[in-house]
Records
---
Amino acid sequence: MKFPTLTEIGEVKGDQKVARQCFISAMKRKFAHERLKVIEDEISKLIRANVVREAHYPDWLANIVVAPKKGEKWRVCVDFTDLNKACPKDSFPSPKIDLIVDATSKHELLSFMDAFSGYHQIKMYPPDIEKTSFITERGLYCYKVMPFGFEKRRGNVPKTGQQDVQCTNWKKTMEVYIDDMLVKSLQAHNHIAHLEEAFDILRRHRMMLNPSKCIFGVSSGKFLGFLVTKRGIEVNPDQIQALIAMRSPRNIREVQQLTGRVAALNRFVSKSADKCLPFFKILRKSQTFQWSEESENAFRQLKEYLGSPPLLSVPTVERRSLRIFVCLAHRNKCSTSPRRG
């Protein structure tokens, strides 16, 4: 029987049954009554959906993790840290979000679709099913489909999503990132045909959609953290509002939250490295946290700048000459191709 230790994956030989029972009793985490009820409900739901089954004498065993999410609810996951360390990494490249988002510009009609628990629509390789075993108060269970939190899922889901649409001219009418899909049409009268083509692919591969997260036949919408429209790519207003509503950081952790939110808006902030330099100085210092007047001024100026963020669009080089302006500074470099009119 294999089991995790502080430094490596250990193995017990001899009386496997006794060793397994001792290990299971020692590793099982204790939860408050409220969280036990959440776990019980989640396991019942997974069993009804035919996602998990009982496991018998598994060689691998993981624990349940319960994390809070919005709306005073709880998310139940399995901690596959040790299994992930032992599994070879999938080298399949993840799609570039910037390139996908750029390709949605200039389209008259868009439809946004989301796969229903996309990772649960990929079946596990039968001999590996019991490697996903986890422990609960009800007993031991394992996943019959790809579980959330399993590193292999990161390569398999985008691979499956892209291969499902490779058989068509998918780059002309469809964009896929993991379980998020977008059908796009340069001309509105072609959109129904493009949707029929996408649905045919999904039906052929038995991919199910989440109707509550699908929007069809609109001129704009949120996709991969950006607001995509016919005019171009705009910053997500929710991200702008979240940063503007922030108070001045009072500790290192809040500075890290600030720089993280700015990083998400990096494409829309000219000379972002210069604008955020006072924040990075604080993170580099090992001394006591100090929010200086320079940091406060930079924070205020950043909010003012984001009050009217720029619009990004794909250049139409066939219609006009393209000029690229490059800015070189001591600490960074950036470039832009501004459009007049």
Note: The longest strand covers residues 63-69.
---
Amino acid sequence: MVTQIRNGRVIRKAVRLRNYILEELGESIGQQSNLRTQQIIFLHILKEMDGNLKGFQRNQEYQKLGLFANSPGNSQGDPYSILTGKAGLFLDLDFGPRDDKSILDTRILFLGSVYEALKSQERRKHRGVYYTPYGLAQTICRLSLDSFESNECNSKASNLLGLRILDNACGSGIFLFAMLEELLKRIKTSARTVVLSNISVKTNRLDAIASYLLRHSLFGHDLDEDAINIAQAQLWLALYHLAGAAPSFIPGRNLRVADTLVSEESDDQYDIIIGNPPYMRLTSRDVKYKHAIKKRYSLTREYNTHALFIQASMAQLRKGGILGYLIHKNLLTLDTFSSFRQSLVATNDLIHLSDCGPGVFSGVTAETAIIVLQKGPTIDPSSVTLSVYDSKTGDCSVTAAIDHEPYFNLISPWNNRYLLSISPEIIPYLLHMSRLPLLNTEVTIKRGIETGSNRRFISNEPKSDGNWMPLLRGRDIAKYDVKSSVYLNYKPDELAKPGRRDLQHIPKVVVQQNSEHPIASFDSGRFLVLNSANYMFNASEEMLKTICVLLNSKLISWFFKTVMTNNAGLTVNLLPNNLGRIPIPSSPDLTLFSMLCDVLVHLKSASKSSLEESARFKIWHEILAETFVVEAYFPHLIKDKKVFNQLRIILNSLQSRSFDLGPFDEKIAVSAKRILKEFEFLNHK
């Protein structure tokens, strides 16, 4: 009952607001006859809003309207509840004069947030469109303007007013709204007066300045006509809010329906392009559309729309112009885009990269980043600024500012991955590792067997008929341990990708495929491997065991997360090509590492039934083995070799004592810890 009363109040307030806005619009229309088309659009939006609030589910007329209609392709949850909740915030707005500390009130954006919320998850995923949080849009606008203003003369108010700024996938206009606010803040503080159309205007006349910016500076394109209408409505409300009365026009001339990727190319040039372009692959589009894409763009291996939007945007920028985009982090790391990343920085300047991590969009796990580029190249590029975005504060905490040349010298050996999580202190370590041999030069790396139907070929128990063999899945692999609990009916001629026919019997290193970093174990030749894991072979057992120890080390975990996944907080696919690019020491002591692997496998097995052995495994794995790994990679940095000599003696003695480790000398562990302390960056998460 309480909910019904509350919703009833919201409905009454919504109807009053609708009538209020329509009355003000009517007065404006009476004075400006050229606004009739915009009036019809805006009336349509308000009518649909009103229809939802009154309970359109019982009214067939409103089910046909489409914008907020509860149709199968355009609904999520209960539109009535969503709208009444949002409207409650919106209706408390004061449309009269107000304090300018908050120049634009973000509650105006309720129309866009409701529109996006009512789209079905399936439809949003299909089109790759997600509603950008306002704080994130503000941050991208601020970083883009900061980059533009790094040229001192560009910070003048007259130059800010002369900008041409485009969001070429503007949706309901949240970036245009955020950019309007950011421009108003800067213009207000940069001068006492500005010149608009040859007339001096005091900067406290923010409504006049905003009106000028919306007529001359801010532009938006989008595929969705309804979203464009929403953008017009929200920007009109922003002007209304500033002026305290109905504006003389509804923003619309610079907002148009267009497909940025395939629309007829324009000669228009912009100073800044901002936005959150749709993220999707184009495999679902028709042949004609894909042909148009292939004809226009140089990217041919994988049509990720983020890459295409960047390429299209750079063509629309004037030289020296700024691009500020929110993108999927895989664009920065996937080998597929190596040549794209290389060409991008060969002709433009990378200004800023900010790690946004996962969870930017509600219900979406994809990790994102902000990228800011300047069209160039310029004669004297600024440094590359790296930061981490905080969604709670909207701030980007700078972690490093690295000159262009050392930054690009660093990323070029790793297929031009744009690295986010580095600092000047670790660059020497990464540069040294970039000169080492790669893992794929020592072993062959493959994904496991693809059955085509796990239900048909995999069983918890071997059956009497068929060729049933023990099988390892990714989940069955731990560091220095495997536990097979299923069997595969190995019929190579019937499996989708059967792999090597002798796979079960060859010695190999098996590695989880879905993990934050490599997790490996050695298999002497007992198991088949499913495609949820990778395996490495074509090397001696000593080399394979050495690789097992290296992959399980904290050093390689740090390297993989820093270079290969850009510190992804979620599990990733550890594909053979990425594993193959892991550097390995030039001349590791294979005999010693092989014995070390045997000790760790033994201790891991013993630790399952003994707390004492579990503690011992932890010391050997996290301290002693790690020290050996660090020494193998950076022998020139370690002067005191005593601890290694002592450990070699212990390992050599084990050959005749069958893993009887005896009392452990804690002094060796203390010495090893002292060495690892010099590599503190390995402990940073």
Note: Residues 273 and 519 are 42 Å apart (CA to CA).
